[in-house]
Amino acid sequence: MQPIWLVFKTILVEVNDMYDRVKIKVEQSSKANITISTQLAENLNIGKRKWGFVSFGAKKLFADILISEELEYDDIVLSKKLADQLFIPSYPTYEVKVKGAEIILGPCIGILACQKNKDLSKRMLKEIALNVIDYGRINGAIITFSLDKVNKDNNTIEGYCYNPEKDTWDKGTFPYPLSIYRKSKLSRQWENHFLTFIGDSTFNNYNFDKWDTYKWFSKEVDIIDHIPRTIVYENKEDLFQMIENYQNIYAKPIGGMKGFGVIKINKEGEKIRFRYKKDDSNEDRLLEEGEELYREIDNLLRPGEFIIQQGIDLIKYDGGLVDFRCVMQKDESKKWQCSSMITRVGAKDSVVSNISSGGAAMPAMDLIKDVIASSHTEAFIFKERLISLCVKVCETLDQYGFNFGTLGLDLGVDTNKDIWLIEVNNRRPHPGIALRASDIQAYYNILSGPLRYGKALAGFGSEEEDKNAL
Question: Which is nearest to 95 in space by CA: 81, 64, 74?
Fold first, then answer.
């Protein structure tokens, strides 16, 4: 059976090779040396080099450099002493580059999967294998590990390295990787530890909530007009003032996800209507001012835990609310790209558009052409407007100092075709929505995207990124 990355290679975007790909061979020797073919040495501009140091991950060791006319171009031979001290596995396909006196083998990318090794099950490794479906573009050592298997004494980790030949995860001890894709939490102490030894290369390193989103972006000139007015709910007067100002508002849990706990609140004459999902049914209550209204508010809203947000008259499709989920990812150039844009259509009469609440998904361009634009050209221009706002938001987060590789942005469009930023999902947006829209390309791009950025952070970015680093 072919490895999964070969099976899906045809549907993934190919890029031009920038670095030479090599295979590592290990020979018995008590000396620390590296042997390179004559042609590869010339290509790396080290044809006369006799001494230098070799690095893999955060490990760097001095070594004798031997040049051989007998070696195949893409073979590099390490002495066993050097290989053991580098903790380098021989089965990955590596890329090689030279920086001064340093010969760098990589990339070496880590995936922090969980806190405890007992939770790093075969099932979890199988799920993580989907992130390496673009291995032919990434290459190098991709190491999955748990936090409790990090050895601070010698800066190594015990984990599992992806074997592209067998499509397996092989257990071993490895050096600190030069970038870490964080799927599990890190304390500030651990963040500082990795910062000391590998630099600012731990990504998806910060969680923020709906209130943070409003506080930050409402101060940005290029974004403020796309942000609904929002306050933190502290008392009933907050709700009454917002509904007086906007007639139509939403209450949302500050840390909520997937549309859970969202309440739509409308003023209808002297009464207030509450619509929300409870269990599997949609609740609809119209109450006049009095004790019953106050009890409903107390039952639904907790001070300091909800935001109250200006309601937007969103466009609808087949009776359901519409929004757009844009998955933004950094590639090898460390620049933001739109990997996927999917339209979510809420269930009829639902207060949210989320798939988990009975909604459906479809390609964004299909919806734009059906509902928003009158021509293909107009639809393309409108989609670019959506992407442009997403790029502004993502680049602003970069300016704040955060290190994200993947973000999911939810955008709404009102009946005037104005665009609104509804939410920023910084907790690994689920790729399954692309499958709901039958967009296989987007599904695999979302899965493989984090490691493309991880490759750049590990020192093997695109040519453009590499030049910018000089």
Answer: 74
CA distances from 385 to 322, 357, 417, 420, 439 (A): 17, 28, 11, 11, 21
pLDDT tens track for 263-313: 999 999 989 999 998 877 788 999 998 999 999 999 999 999 999 999 999
As a whole number of angstroms, the distance between CA 355 and CA 361 comes to 7
* Element counts in the chain: helices (H) and strands (E): 14, 25
Determine the Cα angle at 90 with ends 84 and 91, to 5°: 150
Q: How many CB atoms lie within 10 A of CB 421?
A: 22
Burial class (CB in 10 A: 0-12, 13-18, 19+), 470: exposed
What is the percent of the chain where pLDDT is above 90? 79
* CATH code assigned at 461: 3.30.470.20
Pairing of strands 108-114, 141-151: parallel
Q: What are phi and psi of 139, to 5 degrees?
A: 65, -175
Q: Answer yes or no: is 115 within a domain.
A: yes
Number of domains in the chain: 4
pTM of the model: 0.89
Q: Quote the CA–CA distance of 69 and 202 in Å, as a whole number.
A: 40
Compute the Cα dihedral for 131, 11, 371, 217 and give only its sign. Answer: positive
Distances 29 to 83, 91, 403 between C-alpha atoms, Å: 10, 19, 42
| Residue closest to 285 by CA, chosen among 307, 305, 301, 268 | 268
Q: Looking at the predicted structure, is the pLDDT value of residue 91 above 60?
A: yes
Whether residue 449 sits in one domain with residue 355: yes
Percent composition of the chain: helix, strand, coil (DSSP 3-state, to 5)? 30, 35, 35
Regarding whether 327 and 428 lie in a shared domain, the answer is yes
**Tokens describing residue 229:** 């007015």
- Alpha-carbon gap, residue 430 to 427, rounded angstroms: 9
28: its two tokens = 């018995």
Q: Are 411 and 384 in contact (CB under 8 A)?
A: no
The DSSP-derived string for 389-454 is HHHHHHHHHHHTT---SEEEEEEEEBTT--EEEEEEE-S---THHHHHTT-HHHHHHHHHHHHHHH
**What letter would DSSP give residue 346?**
P
User: What whole-number distance in Å separates Cα of residue 305 and Cα of residue 233?
Assistant: 7
Confidence of residue 14 (pLDDT cuts 50, 70, 90): very low
Separation CA 144–CA 109 (nearest Å): 9
Preceding amide of 107 cis, omega within 30: yes
| Residue range(s) defining the domain that contains residue 83 | 16-107
In this structure, the answer to whether residues 121 and 151 fall within a common structural domain is yes
